[in-house]
Amino acid sequence: MARTSGSHSEITGPRLRAAAQALFARHGYAAVSMRRIAAEVGVQAGALYNYIPDKQGLLFELMKSHLDELLAAWEALPKGTGARDALEAFTRFHVRFHLDRPDAVFIAYMELRNLEPANFRAIEALRRRYETVLEDILRQGAAEGAFDVADSKHAAFAVIAMLTGVTTWYRDEGRLSRAEVEDLYWSMVRKAVSA
């Protein structure tokens, strides 16, 4: 069967990635076939290989683009002065960024186990860069006497896990607004580091 009428690479490629992301988040990487992704997009399974090398490459690309966007967005953000301002900026940024991308977040955290070793190392390096941002803030705050953190690495892991967890329960139609959720999480993070 020929390519679907009206199918164009600048349209089909992004549609393919969006469909794969939604399917992987809903059903899990292992349960989703290339045929299922193709059906969702409206092309034959073989046509997918015009846009991606294989299913593993697609998973890697989704995770890498999420982490690249995360790091770029953080770099572009004003951080204020001092560790306390930076920690508040990080907290609010993390909540805001992740609430807009629950499927990408789910895949980035839950599908690591399905990455081949080289892809895992590349994704882990990007995750480590982001974790280091928070570790550095916590170390700076401890040096300034603003935070009481015994181990900045493990404190960073705990804070990121707490902040990322918001994507599992928050709904726009719920009782809290996004701004209220940011305030709530900033309060919890501040208390966690004794700021």
UniProtKB/TrEMBL annotation:
**Chain residues forming the annotated DNA-binding region:** 33-52
Give the record's keywords alphabetically: DNA-binding
KW Lipid biosynthesis (keyword) present = no
Spell out the molecular function terms from Gene Ontology.
DNA-binding transcription factor activity; transcription cis-regulatory region binding
Which InterPro entries does the entry mention?
A: Homeodomain-like_sf, HTH-type_TetR-like_transc_reg, HTH_TetR, KstR2_TetR_C, Tet_transcr_reg_TetR-rel_C_sf
Please state every residue range assigned to the domain named HTH tetR-type: 10-70
PANTHER family in UniProt: HTH-TYPE TRANSCRIPTIONAL REGULATOR RUTR, TRANSCRIPTIONAL REPRESSOR MCE3R
List the protein's name.
TetR family transcriptional regulator
Lineage of this protein's species?
Bacteria, Pseudomonadati, Pseudomonadota, Alphaproteobacteria, Rhodobacterales
